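To whoever is covering the structure queue this week,

Two jobs came back overnight. Logging them here so there's a record in the thread.

Job A:
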Amino acid sequence: MARNVIITGGGTGIGLAAARAFAAEGDRVLLVGRRIEVLEKAGVIGALKYPADLSTVEGARGAADFALEAFDGTVDVMVHSAGGLGGRLLPAPEGADPLDAVAHDWNANFRINTLTSVLLTEALREHLASPGGRIVFVSSIAALRGSGQGSYGASKAALHPYTYDLAKALGPRGITVNTVAPGYIEDTDFFGPSMPEAEYRRRVDATLTGRAGTPDDIAATVLWLASPGGGHVSGQIVQVNGGEFLGR
């Protein structure tokens, strides 16, 4: 039976791969992202699109209202893939005081990587299919070991206790809540348009599998967590990093 699926950040990278995976299963997919032109270019056949800044209450409420109307009041699956580097997406003003720049960077990362997931989830948590609802957040290996940058990893790490709390709260309704924490994933916009070959090799060589991850790797894991086969998995942080977390 077709499910109602919301995917944030669904226009590019991991979110787009997940959207294609769910659409291939015959599910009804709603893509939510900041830029309508990106959502329109996604090319997910039959997908609905709604542009919104999910880091704001207004944006999250608008997306939630649109989803409930489109899906007749029930959401089966929520996949939260929206996010990115705050300093790149919302750079500090030119010439900002150093401490002001730090505050701006931390606020930007928590807006982009934490609030985008939390606000829409809270807007829709009472409308998730019960039983059978699924929530999957996309975190990062940086949330588990740091990234050398501080605020990005911290903003992703904030999703982990939120995952645990939601899993406990929604479990009695038959709803599972999990987080996928990727390592280096190629073919996304996260690192910008290009990466120096030396940096690419460093990241690939840090894995035990000897290759970069792909958006499809993450999408496959998300799809399984949302499947009947993943129905007894909840409150977990699932690492998908080719063993990079272990180190060489």
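Job B:
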Amino acid sequence: MTIKLMLLRVAGPLLVRVAALSGMRRSRLALVLLNRALVGLALTAVVGAVYFGIIALGRPLTSSAGLVAALVAGALFHPVRVGLQGAADRLFGIERDPYRLADRVNRRVQEAPGPAEALASAVAATRRALRAPGVSVEVVLPGGRSRRFADGEVGASPTVLPLEWQGTSMGRLLVAGEPRDRALLDMLARQLAEVAHAVRLSADLRRSRERMLLTREEERHKLRRDLYDGLGPTLTELALSADEARISLAGGPEAVDPLLTRMRRRMTEAIVEVRELVYGLRPPALDGADLGELGLEGALRTLADSPGPRVDVAVSGPLGDLPAAVEVAAYRIAHEAVAGVRRHARATTALIRVDRRPGSLCLSVADDGIGLPEQRREGAARLRHRAEELGGTYEHDTRPGGGTEVVVELPVKEPA
């Protein structure tokens, strides 16, 4: 009867809490209470058995058997409780050692197939380690986007911790309610910040691959259009002119001479178009032995000397110490802008202006043509992409006197 009363004293309050508490997840609450109930019942049974066993065996021998039993039961209470609690934790998969918890989270991360899966697994392991109703991690991705990894519900008023990796914010950690162990939460937050950094690097790499694929396809599309719309009709016209000259031979050399002159002019234009296509793929003036002789200024002046509308070049500031990537980007932007002026703008003059400023290079191409037709708008998107690849800016506008002006500013890291 006494044992039953002791069991009711231990289990009774737990049952009352099961019925009274609200707002927590039932499965987690039931697991915690069942763990405590088993430990309390087992502890009561073991201590009670020792207590009554000593009384039963020692009462015939001494009158102070009750005192001895009480002392022995009190001495055994703590070590027995610790042992029973450890056994119950192992049974329910609960770990209370913070270092083992961190090691478990680390193992879950290493076993994951990728950074995103690793962070999702680490969030789930963190929730179990903190024994919280919900844990969520929000990772700030490149481009201002964010991605959320959650396990459970964090509720309306969670505890928020910033996730920082080497002084850079990776996002934030949200934990439902008030954490029981703040030191454990800070230690797990540092591990989550490292995994969040890996997720961000993975997203940045994926974004770079997508941009490279987009750039490659745009370059292929531009090359196909240039070959089909530019060089193709020119070669077709040359073939027709050759046939016309062959037929006109019967009328004498005088009839053939104008045709041959026109063919020669069209062949020169075709050679210029082929050269522009080749230079657009790989500017020879900026790559190879010619780099030290021409540089960006010389390459732009060579570009301006090609047949077509008159193109002037104005340079302000030294250009000899520009990084190779900035030189190539500036030349390709100027080359494509001038090609658009010659093909679609119907301009008579154009001006390429290069201004070297502290920490940047400003390039502008202005013309007196008809504006920005649809063909040039497609090229404007490519020019913007080339500038933004290096972290620069691009803009175009209509000039007050007619024509279009393209302005690009590229960042330049000054030499130490």
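Note for Job B: Confidence is low (pLDDT under 50) at residues 1-8, 10-25, 288-292.

Please reply-all if you pick these up so we don't duplicate work.
Q.
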